[in-house]
Amino acid sequence: MDACPRCQTSLRPDAKFCPECGTQVHVQPVHAELVETRAAPRSNLPSPWSAALLSIIPGLGHWYAGAPKRGLIFFVAIVGGELLGIDFDLTLIGDIVGIPLGVGATGLWAFCAVDAYRTAARRRAESA
Ligand SMILES: [Zn+2]
């Protein structure tokens, strides 16, 4: 049985104030509002849609999604082949990494965005 710290009157266990002198006997906890409100670590994972949008610059979406080497292959294949006029024979490399490099720069660019999306989605799935 609790007693009032001021007048020693016996108190009900759920009493917040002493019925005799009015002293507050159970201080309300103030820590409840200090609960951690930081964002969950999940939000640090790459967003699939952001990865796809970043693929406007070939390879940037993959770099963002955590696959920079794969992004570099896309960058060289699309930018190198289209803008610089360098005729790479990347078909062999494409077979190794699973990228259809024979579809031409435009088709490859579209595939790049889809692949960046998948890469980011896979990262999220692995971290879940
Ligand atoms: Zn009291």
Molecular structure report:
- This protein is mostly helical.
- The chain has a domain at about 45-125.
- The chain contains five helices and no strands.
- The chain has helices at about 50-55, 60-65, 70-80, 90-95, 105-125.
- α1 runs antiparallel to α5 and α3 (about 70-80) runs antiparallel to α5 (about 105-125).
- The chain is rod-shaped and about 95 Å long.
- Bound molecules: zinc ion.
- Zinc ion (ZN) binds near residues 4, 6, 7 and 20.
- Zinc ion binds next to loops.
Write the layout of secondary structure elements.
Elements lengths: L47 H7 L5 H6 L2 H15 L8 H7 L6 H24 L1
Helix pairs in contact: 1-5, 3-5
The structure holds zinc ion (ZN).
What would a concise description of this structure say?
By secondary structure, the chain is mainly alpha-helical. It has helices at residues 48-54, 60-65, 68-82, 91-97, 104-127. It contains 5 helices and no strands.
Low-pLDDT runs: none
Please compute the radius of gyration using only Cα atoms: 31 Å
Total number of beta strands: 0
Structural class: mainly alpha
For the residues shown, what is the average pLDDT?
79
Roughly how many Å apart are the termini? 49 Å
The total count of helices amounts to 5
What is the ordering of alpha helices and beta strands?
HHHHH
